[in-house]
User: Fold this.
Amino acid sequence: MTIQEAAQRSGLSAHTLRYYERIGLIHSVGRNSSGHRDYAESDLQWLDFLTKLRTTGMPIADMCRYAELRRKGEETADERREMLELHRERVRSRIAELTQDLKVLDTKIDSYRGLS
Amino acid sequence: MTIQEAAQRSGLSAHTLRYYERIGLIHSVGRNSSGHRDYAESDLQWLDFLTKLRTTGMPIADMCRYAELRRKGEETADERREMLELHRERVRSRIAELTQDLKVLDTKIDSYRGLS
DNA sequence: ATTTGACTTAGAGCGCACTCGAAGGGTGAA
DNA sequence: TTCACCCTTCGAGTGCGCTCTAAGTCAAAT
Assistant:
């Protein structure tokens, strides 16, 4: 599929897709006879996963590291799992923090209600 | 209290405190006889609240708007409450999103466990 | 044959939220 | 009094994650 279709389906812009490829997040996207990118379904699945990592706050540099390990093959599975477990802890902490802060917001909003 | 003490207690750097003052987030911090900043307890409370807004992802521009309304006094209470209610919704959505993404991470990690 | 429009690359630019540097002033200890 | 060290303002610099531009290629439509 074309870069525009891939952009549509991944929710990323064509610019961002090229950028991700340039920095090594996506490896070896196919090219058609005109030299244009031709995305496969597997690329889309990988992009979806990358997007999860991004929206959960993983820095691009870490994602690059993960992508690099993935390219190296099966023997890096443990290290990749460890990365994800560490990241999962950070996400859990973030959820906990946001949940706490939400209470502060609730209290503040209640105090405004009291005033009106 | 001095800017260093305020930095210590707020968890922000002295640089950031000056920056926040410059852009109008903190208004009229007192000065001592040498022209040095002299923070009051009320400044610290306000900073703590600002920090909650920041860590929950409110953009600086919105925080400035909120600070400006606060300076205008009691008649802006409704608008401030509305801002906070809107922000609270965004925080709730973010928590929901992170919670969903956490499941994806769990699944991925499980699949790695299956391989080892 | 020419125009349109999407694609390619490499590199520059942008917005956000700081973060730092330069130049100078005040205070307190040796 | 000299040194050390903190403070002041203001403007410039930084890091991140894109986002866009320029210059050129290619294919299809007119």
In short: Chain A touches chain B at residues 49, 52, 55-56, 74, 77-78, 80-81, 84-85, 87-88, 91-92, 94-95, 97-99, 101-102, 104-106, 108-109, 112-113, 115-116 (CB under 8 Å).
